[in-house]
Amino acid sequence: MLSFEKLTSRQRDVVGQWVPDARVVADHSWGLVDNVVLELDSAERGRLVLKVDGPTNHHVTREIRAHREWVSALSSTGLAPVMVYADEASHVLITRYLPGELVQGTSAQNDPDTFRQAGSLLAAFHQQLRSYHPTWNDDLRERVERHLVAPHRIDPSIETAVRTEMRNWPTGGAAVVPTHGDWQPRNWLIDQGTVRVIDFGRADLRPADTDLARLARQDFQRNPELESAFFTGYGSDPREPEQWRRTLIAEAVGTASWAYGVNDYEFEAVGQRQLKLLYP
């Protein structure tokens, strides 16, 4: 029977105060990290989605910030969830349920119009703010270094090549925009032909091209028509060759290292394949 047993007592109290008649109807948690995602039903509030984090996770904190600062650019037109309750101290977030079927694994994942709509949504999300992060390039290098220091199975010759290339990476800052952080079909919904987006747990201010890295290694690579449709919707291609390569390297190293650390060997293989393409 589905229940709130994965929540701490404090988190259960918070949910009970906000939605006392809530019952769990589905568990959408990944199970890889201490993050819980439950679909709820309430006679008073309707269908909701509850997200909570454990002590080692920060997805809910990032998602709360995203809802407070950026998500309204999409949620105001029904194309992203609306935040209902948030408690940062307890790592609890409740949003309204958004109708639709996940695009990943359906025929919609091969439909150029899905990608055209996704490109248009991302443009609206990116264009609401442009800022400057004074240490972006320094932080990027440090993040890649942390992943390389952590336990991983990256080929030693590739690790050496990455470290050598990083020595020539620029220092200082970069232009940033609000980014989703995991913009791909597993976080898109399709509902009667309309694309919506969910899960802002990795949202942050980053260079625009970082939201394209996962699409590039998956859907764009297997079908160039999807890439063309996406940029038709987006309106332009924000990728600058040198920065784009740094983005892809950081994404590949991070994927291979992080996935190995949580025993997700299928996802680890995705990062390993990308590294081999970058360093043939």
UniProtKB/TrEMBL annotation:
**Domain Protein kinase stretches:** 19-280
A Pfam family that this protein carries is APH
Q: Which domain of life is it from?
A: Bacteria
Q: Which GO terms describe its molecular function?
A: ATP binding; protein kinase activity
Q: Return the PROSITE patterns for the record.
A: PROTEIN_KINASE_DOM
Q: Which UniProt keywords apply?
A: Kinase, Transferase
Record's protein name: Ser/Thr protein kinase RdoA involved in Cpx stress response, MazF antagonist
